[in-house]
Amino acid sequence: MLRFTTAFIATFALAPMAFAATSYPLKLTSCGHEVTIEKAPHSVVSVGQSTTEILYMLGLADKVKGTALWINPVLPEFAEVDKTVERLADNAPSFESVVAKKPELVVTAYEWMIGPQGAVGTREMFDDAGVASWIMPTECVGKDNSQSMDGARTKLFDTALLYQGITELAEIFDVSERGEKLVADLKSREEAAVRKAEDLNLPEDVSGVFWYSSADIEIDPYVAGLNGVPGWMLSKLGVKNVVTSEEEWPTVGWETIATARPTFIVAAEMNRRRFPADDIAVKREFLTTDPVAKEMEAVRQDRILTIEANAMDPSVRAIFALEKLSNALSGFGLSK
């Protein structure tokens, strides 16, 4: 998987700021909540791997005073800098532990972390503590989080929301030029991956399914719904998603999946071990031994692709995963 080059990251430290400086106070609307940023924050706590990695990519690691909610290891190019940042929790941190870092800002990609029923706290709790809170627009535009933790997307995920989030974060910290360069690089890689898939001239019946995990290996798995990030990947590459639910991660039986005859299966790899099926080795063992799963063409033809779980959520890793999936399709021998 391609990564950001050292030279690309270094341009943040060397390039002069040609963009206009952020005008403070900066007023934003974040998931329906009015946020006022009085000045560029000197300290931030990031609840979620995706927002943390964006901050690192923007050259803001020195501002990050704490992180939480990690699923995969940090991107390799940030392994050393990440060691200098305190991890408050691998999963949801307590409200008290976040506030104890005395951040001027707390950011996240998930309303179930900071929102009406936030596992960390509500927006009002942070307001009362004098801490501004900001949530990635990927979490609330075209998405309803009122009925479940994962929510349901009423519209297909669009990377424009990811790029908007990067741009807003860059503006908050008065590093807009860095944000523009990062967005331009990601857009270029997204477009190249799509062109590569288009050149394959895939048959119209090519389909896929994304398996995130299972609460128990013997029951219905959590798979990607129609409009989430995996659905976006499939749509961009001209592939049908065999799952049609608008839920972000619905449970669907293997018999139903097998009947839909997916051309390939994408399985999530993660360090998290909430469920046994979080382990990619457990997933592969199930697919090759279960009486129903092992008879699927995707399994018999060994069309099982592994992608980091964090890339199945709105994050910069979704672009990397799109590249990986596009490359994999070229090796499946599916062209007309």
Description:
This protein is an alpha/beta fold and 336 residues long. The chain is built from 12 helices and 14 strands. It has helices spanning 6-14, 49-57, 79-82, 95-99, 123-128, 159-172, 176-200, 229-236, 254-260, 280-289, 297-300, 317-331, and strands at 26-30, 33-37, 44-47, 64-68, 87-89, 105-108, 132-135, 143-144, 152-153, 207-213, 222-223, 240-241, 264-269, 304-308. The strands form 4 sheets. The chain has a 5-stranded parallel beta sheet with strand order 5-4-3-6-7. Strands 10, 11, 12, 13 and 14 form a 5-stranded mixed beta sheet that branches.
Distance between the termini: 26 Å
Gross geometry: globular
Instruction: Please summarize the sheet with the most strands.
Output: 5 strands, parallel
- SSE-based structural type: alpha/beta
Salient structural properties:
five-stranded parallel sheet, five-stranded mixed sheet, globular, alpha/beta, about 325 residues
Task: Compose a concise summary of this entry.
By secondary structure, this protein is of the alpha/beta class.
Topology:
Blueprint: H1 6-14, E1 26-30, E2 33-37, E3 44-47, H2 49-57, E4 64-68, H3 79-82, E5 87-89, H4 95-99, E6 105-108, H5 123-128, E7 132-135, E8 143-144, E9 152-153, H6 159-172, H7 176-200, E10 207-213, E11 222-223, H8 229-236, E12 240-241, H9 254-260, E13 264-269, H10 280-289, H11 297-300, E14 304-308, H12 317-331
Parallel strand pairs: 3-4, 3-6, 4-5, 6-7, 10-12, 10-13, 13-14
Antiparallel strand pairs: 1-2, 8-9, 10-11
